[in-house]
Amino acid sequence: MTQHLVLNRTGDKMPLVGFGCWKVDPQDAEDTIYNAIKAGVRLIDGAGDYGNEVEVGRGINKAINEGIVKREELFVVTKLWNTFHSKENVRPTFEKQLKDLGLSYVDLYLIHFPVPLKHVTIETAYPPGWYQPAATEIEFERAPMHELWREMEKIAESGDAKNIGISNFNVQLILDLLTYANIKPAVLQVELHPYLQQKRLVEWVQKQGLQVTAYSSFGPASFVQLTDDGKTAEPLLGHPVIKEIAEKHGKTPAQVLLRWSLERNVAVIPKSMNVERTKSNLDIFSFTLGQEELAAIAKLELGLRFNNPDSYGFELPLWS
To answer: In this protein, which residues make up the domain named NADP-dependent oxidoreductase (predicted)?
Structure first.
């Protein structure tokens, strides 16, 4: 099986397995990213909102400077945060991110959420998060997506981001974007795991020529109690169905969950602070899941979304 996805327009090859930088503590980020690259990771998925781009960049450059990898062998992803959607703020924010990373270009630049929040200057707070300083409710900004996308296209045209894409978009918004885009998004990144499979979204997006990246591939990190119908959702890494499949193949539950996405031609960006687990996460090309196993996993669908702004108290039912 191929270990990469080919992106539209550029033909660039995006690794199917990468390393996600969300919730990597800045004090650990340099060593974590350096060790991940040393372990074989070639896709680094970050964002301005993660608050660790300076340190992630140091890890990347340390690996390059030591000759462990060449820059062109890495695929670096970052994302534009919600408070920088106005057309005059896009390029300056991107340039700050490039500087923070210590890179001359990134391979993929994504719109993090389709949520135009009121601007917070970089000098006031960075990363600014969801709220204005001292505010308790989110405030929106008149920053149309078509204007934002044109600025993203300019960055792609300059070559400073080889590819551009979107994250946390639904079909309706993607369909609208495609009506005016001169450069089609290369990638959609969304939450995907057996409890939230989004089958039709994935199929439709791929049919439009966009590649898909899954985040939160392991679902809940701990036991989650559902209120609907008294159902419960246990951690996927300990789910009997996943464990049984893993034992059959002599693999870990984590490897099975990652392989499940690969079977859908979807890239994954797992994170681990443990180098051996990072190596294990990369080792998912030596086996495949059978139709019966895929059918068993399909039955785990609960429509259970973990990364939901509305559940954070933001009064933003993004997926309702």
So the answer is: 20-300
The Cα–Cα gap between 242 and 297 comes to 8
Residue 237 near residue 193 (C-beta atoms within 8 A): no
pTM: 0.96
Q: Which contacts of 59-65 are long-range, i.e. CB under 8 A and separated by 24 or more positions?
A: 59/29, 59/30, 59/31, 59/32, 59/33, 59/34, 60/33, 60/34, 60/101, 60/102, 60/103, 61/102, 61/103, 62/30, 62/34, 63/33, 63/34, 63/37, 63/38
Domains of the chain: which residue ranges?
Answer: 4-309
Kindly tell me if the per-residue pLDDT of 231 is higher than 70. Answer: no
Neighbouring residues of 274: CB distance < 8 A, sequence distance ≥ 6:
none
What secondary structure letter does DSSP report for 232? E
185 is written with which tokens?
């998004």
50 carries an active-site annotation? yes
pLDDT at 227 over 80: no
* Catalytic option among 34, 50, 109, 126: 50
Q: In the chain, where do the E strands start and end?
A: 4-6, 13-15, 19-20, 43-45, 75-80, 108-111, 164-167, 187-191, 211-215, 224-225, 232-233, 267-268
Statement: residue 259 has pLDDT above 60: yes
The pair of three-digit structure tokens given for residue 25, joined into one six-digit string = 């503590």
Mean pLDDT of the chain: 94
193 is in an annotated binding site: no
Least confident of 12-16, 21-25, 217-221: 217-221
Is the pLDDT at 314 greater than 90, yes or no? no
**CATH topology assigned to domain 4-309:** TIM Barrel (3.20.20)
The pLDDT value recorded for residue 31 is 98
Task: State the DSSP code for 155.
Answer: H
